[in-house]
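Quick start: read one record
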Amino acid sequence: MSDNDSSSIGWFLAGLGIGALVGVLYAPKSGRETRDTILQSANQGRDYLTRNAQELRTQADQWVQKGKETINRSKDQITSAVEAGRQAYREAVDKG
């Protein structure tokens, strides 16, 4: 999944750069207007990257939380099994 995200971001940035270049070459705008347009596109790209980074961070936090929950469940099961084994041993020793 991270390879796909990296690829998507790379293609987005490449498209952003090509779009800006084509816009500069064919734009019937003044230099100031063109610079403003490029700045706006760059800000949109930054916002896109920030939003995706936040989403990835949230998803990673969810995975970490699920991992912690799984480890705690396994730990509880192992503790219960060990305690049951001790109890069975005590009962066997008391009978014998």
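The chain has two helices and no strands.
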